[in-house]
Design a protein that fits this description.
The protein has 397 residues and is mainly α. The protein contains 15 helices and four strands. A two-stranded antiparallel sheet has the order 1-2. The longest helix has 37 residues.
């Protein structure tokens, strides 16, 4: 135990291993998120998106009449992915400003375009717009997988609609129902979640080019007070970023009410998953439903014969954490003074990646894969129930 109490340097000598194992790693990425969702919240995605947004802005400004050269745009486009992260980190330590650190770093590989990078923009032009892009892309990863889960659960419910089972109210024996009918309770809730999440995704808009306080003053100055040109600039950049609409009114940031919508819908999905998994855990005790038990799986270090519903337990654990986080955006929105305060920044950097990555429904992660119902067929990542007498046995692959 003495070695554990030694300094970090001594520990390095005692425990040779890769550097990645010497510091905290988020289990959301290491254990639960799909590769696609993990990349969506990565630094590469974030900062290449910043550079794309600067490119979109410069292209739109050129289109509307600013003196921006084609070779400047070409230089920016060629270097979108050429990011010196160490330089950016060093510059941020020096300037205490992440956006200006990356403006500087981008300018180092785009010297001809240095004067037009971030022209007229505020930090939230890249920060908030990138968040909205990442959130939208995350929903586009999540929703098709959730729809697939619903389709498979519907097939299971149809296949088991005539299999009788004892219903419970107050967790006491009640009247008979069927396995398929009970599954429809889960199905109905998931359909509501699909509806809510789809609505939130479709309601997302782009922040656009709104300036420091939402008045577009800096862009009006660039275009000699021509409001029509500034409106066109907003539309062009919004379209280049893949959005059909931008928010009509903003402060410096998009309204943090948007984050409440997003995270409330995700918390609702967490509640559904927790309810379904709790039902499965109770049914596992009754031996009506059983999670698969793989050939080399160990049920317990002390009791290896056990067949614990560990997948459902994991999902309940993650869902419970997801549900508790919804209070954060409520507090953030409540204390957004006037056009903006910066105390919304650090917690949003932490908060958004906590909510979405574990909802990946990925067969290779440890996220909530149990909701891929496959009827009587077992497929990768699937959850199949096999009927035997009065029991329903669930198997995974």
């Amino acid at each position: 135990m003495a070695g554990i109490q030694n300094s970090a340097g001594e520990m390095d000598n005692k425990f040779p291993c890769k550097d990645e194992y010497r510091k905290y790693r988020s289990p959301l990425v290491a254990r639960y998120a799909s590769p696609e969702m993990a990349f969506n919240f990565s630094d590469v995605k974030k900062f290449t998106t910043w550079r794309k947004l600067w490119l979109y802005l410069a292209k739109a400004q050129q289109t509307i009449g600013l003196d921006i050269k084609d070779d400047q745009l070409k230089e920016m486009e060629d270097n979108v992915g050429n990011i010196d992260f160490e330089m950016a980190a060093a510059e941020e330590r020096k300037r205490r400003h992440d956006v200006m650190a990356h403006v500087y770093t981008f300018a180092q590989c785009c010297p001809r375009a240095a004067s037009i990078i971030h022209l007229g923009a505020t930090s939230c032009y890249v920060g908030d717009n990138t968040d909205l892009i990442v959130i939208s892309d995350a929903f586009n990863l999540l929703l098709p997988r959730l729809a697939r889960c619903i389709q498979r659960l519907a097939s299971f419910a149809e296949a088991q609609k005539n299999l009788p089972t004892l219903g419970f109210t107050h967790y006491q024996p009640a009247q008979l129902t069927t396995v398929g009918k009970r599954a429809c309770l889960w199905l109905s809730d998931l359909l509501m979640d699909l509806r809510n999440l789809t609505r939130v995704r479709d309601d997302l808009r782009f922040r656009g080019v709104k300036g420091t306080t939402g008045t577009q003053a800096s862009f009006l100055a660039l275009f000699d007070g021509d409001g029509e040109k500034v409106d066109r600039l907003d539309r062009l950049v919004t379209e280049m970023a893949g959005f059909q609409r931008s928010y009509i009114v903003t402060g410096q940031t998009y309204s943090r009410k948007v984050d409440i919508d997003v995270l409330s819908a995700l918390a609702g999905l967490g509640a559904t998953i927790h309810k379904v998994c709790t039902d499965l855990r109770l049914l596992a005790n009754l031996k009506e439903v059983e999670e698969p038990f793989e050939t080399d799986q160990i049920g317990s270090s002390a009791m290896p014969y056990k067949r614990n519903p560990m997948r459902s337990e994991r999902c309940c654990s993650l869902a419970r954490h997801l549900m508790t986080l919804v209070g954060d955006p409520l507090q953030t929105h409540a204390v957004q003074w006037f056009e903006r305060t910066l105390d919304d920044s650090a917690n949003s950097i932490v908060l958004l990646p906590v909510h979405l990555p574990w909802c990946s429904f990925d067969e290779h992660s440890r996220g909530p894969t149990p909701w891929l119902f496959d009827g009587d067929d077992i497929s990768p990542g699937g959850h199949a129930f096999h009927v035997s007498g009065n029991f329903v046995r669930g198997e995974f692959t």
